[in-house]
Amino acid sequence: MRERGYRVRSAAIAAAALAVRAQKAGPKANELTRRF
After folding, report:
1. For the segment 1-36, what is each residue's pLDDT rounded down to a tens digit?
2. Which end of the chain is more exposed for a tag (fewer CB within 10 A), N or C?
3. What domain of life does the native source organism fall in (predicted)?
């Protein structure tokens, strides 16, 4: 059970990092985040 929570957390952190990168990158990255 703990492993699952850890995986979900790591996935959420990765998604947040992607969102930050997308905001810095610009409109092209925004399209990727919309799909995500």
Report:
1. 678 888 999 999 998 888 887 777 666 656 666 665
2. N
3. Bacteria
